[in-house]
Amino acid sequence: MTAPLLAILLGASPLKAGDKAPDFTLPDTEGRPVTLSKLLAEGPVILAFYVKDFTPG
C-alpha cells in the first residue's frame, strides 16, 4: 500500500468530492495486484469506500 493511500485511510488527509485519488496498488478478489493508474489508462474508474469496514460496529 502506498503512503498517501495509507494516510487517507487513517484519516490524515481525507479526500473531498472532486479530489483526485492517489495512485495505489491493491490486490483484487483473486489476490492479483491492481494499480489505479493502469485501470485509468483503460477508461473511467469508480472507487467505492465502505466506512463500516474501517470502523467498529
From TrEMBL:
Pfam families: AhpC-TSA. Residues 18-57 form the Alkyl hydroperoxide reductase subunit C/ Thiol specific antioxidant domain. InterPro entries: AhpC/TSA, Thioredoxin-like_sf. SUPFAM superfamilies: Thioredoxin-like. It comes from the Bacteria. This is Alkyl hydroperoxide reductase subunit C/ Thiol specific antioxidant domain-containing protein.
